[in-house]
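FIELD: query
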Amino acid sequence: MYFLAAGVILLLLKFFEIGPVGRWGWGEHWYLFAAPFILAVVWWAWADASGYTKKKAMDKMDLRKKERLEKNRDALGMGNKRR
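FIELD: result
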């Protein structure tokens, strides 16, 4: 996501000709504009292939489940007491 945001920011800076990026030519500096988008594709491909995305989703689901169980225990008056 950060690579995508960086690419969009670079394109906006070039489009509105802001700062040094606005003075870059499209022809000789095309790789600077394309690099963030290419890196985003590579990152997403790696994250999907390695299971990183699935692991993060499962961690988030486990955290929500734990919070829900704690909330229900508190509502029943059981709290976090152990025998």
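FIELD: remark
The chain has a mean pLDDT of 92.
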